[in-house]
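Q: Structure tokens for this one, please.
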Amino acid sequence: MKNISNIKKLTFGLLLLLSVLSLAIVNADYQNPIVNVVKVAAPAVVKIDVVVQTEVYIDPFIREFYRQFFGDIPRQFEESNSVGSGFIISKEGYIVTNYHVVKGAKKITVTMLNGDVYDAQYIGGDEELDIAVIKIKPTKDLPVLEMGDSDKLQIGEWAIAIGNPLGFQHTVTVGVISATGRKIPKPDGSGYYTNLIQTDAAINPGNSGGPLLNIYGQVIGINTAIINPTQAMNIGFAIPINTAKRFINQIIATGRVEKAYLGVYVRTVTEALAKSLGLKVTKGVYVSQVEKNSPAAKAGIREGDVIVKLNGTVVESAEELTSLVRNYTPGTKVKVTVNRAGKEITLDVTLGTLPSQNGSSTTSSKEFYGLKVSNLTADDRSTYRVPAGLEGVIVKESKNSFIKVGAVIYRISVNGYSYDIKNISDWNKVVDNIKKGDYIGIFYYYNGVNSVFSFRYN
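A: Here is the predicted structure, written as tokens:
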């Protein structure tokens, strides 16, 4: 009996061993395609370290008090460090990233996966689109990422993010495409990021500027934003690579982008507006005025129309419409759907060149105190919600932390004398005559509030 018991135990042991061995070889020859994507793509993803120098604000009254006893306070600056991501797009060393990653950079350093470190040069970019290009001088052959087609994305397909979240270099996260065509408000309230890709692949601070890849290893987006990480988990957003592709060559060639222009003054349709004007829709963008000879006028858009779609994307606010238009380059043909007295009409529009970049660009205005300005356009008024009666120049670039992009400067005071600023000509006349030691007050409108920034010009 004892021998029989031992035989049973041996038999059971052998069966158990065979079952374990059979489990161990399940999918033995399987090769995860994500592993292959990372092997090929990761070497072309870089870590971007940035040193930013900002001027320390000193209250004008403290500055004047100090000057009376000790002389002028020298301008003071402080440095801060940040980290982001980017990806190489050419053997010549051009790298795409987010504008906010390299904005105001005094020094940019790029680190490769293999540990190679390069100093990088800022080539150009655009804050509104949040796209920038930097360049390194390679000492060896560089790995390059292939760009895909973000217009063909399908909900549920794989999404792979590679970047440097929280400084952890070359971190890989995986998820799916959760949605396309998303819009989220910008942190400063100046408008919207539109037509974004939503993914549940984890995106954290430091991922910004890195690539979102498909299962073929192609770039389908630029990781750019997360929604309040303390409240929302696994909701990240990326700029579609097709949007970036429209502007990358422009940035490399000229250092800036040339954005499109529709030429309408618009207001977001609200319940009150719809009822007061007898509109047949409750959502959309009401056209209060069409600029003469603008692309909108030439296409047949009329005052009183309500724009409800642009190229098939539903439009619900004035800021959203402006952001969508700016995602295109001049000369692009788009379809604009309007509701006209209850009937939907789709019009073909050839977008023009934003006037502030054609004849009255920021290059024709004098830079002063880190500010570059241009004349106001209808699109600017829509984007930054500038009141119809307010005249001035709009800040397009700002190298100081006091007056933001989108602020409208309408008056400058110099040593107690005030000068109205209605256009670039007024601006140039005033700033041309400012001398060191002058006391300056810049009156501006931003986000519904009138403010004044005062300082002594050194």
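A few notes: The two ends are 105 Å apart (CA to CA). The longest strand covers residues 171-185.
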